[in-house]
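note to self: dont lose this again. the chain is below, predicted strucutre after it. 161 aa total, dont forget to put it in the shared folder this time
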Amino acid sequence: MNKKFYLLLIAFMGLCHLASAQTGYGEIRGKVRDEKGKPVDYALVVAKLEGVAKRSTYTDDEGNYVLRPLDPGTYSIEVQFPGYEGDTTRGIVLSPDQIRFINVEIAPKGTLRVIIKKDSKNAVPLIDPGGKQGIGLTAAQVMRMPNRNINQMANLAAGVV
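---
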């Protein structure tokens, strides 16, 4: 009886330890460098969830940063350093118990940077290759629209707010 009790107690404690291993929090870490690849020390790094700052830290002497603990969600990382243009990286999806590595490059103020990012899932050309600048609607199409309010129809045209 006594052996079974202690065996059950040890098994229960082991299960409790395994259950506590998953915290449900994630972390974002990385390195901040300048345009020449040199680490930027003591830059401010802020993690924002839906526009609200959740964690912030400063980079160390080698430009490394760690933001933890962070709740699961889609974050943006903002990096600021005096004399440099700020940088924001958006769309960082963080799952429970996940570590994401996000390296950031910042440039001195007044430096022109061109960043080309190709997102094949949502690629939309900036200029219509067919040369069309708008859409044409027939009277039948307008009549089939759920709402024929002139303001909502004007919003269909490019550049109309």
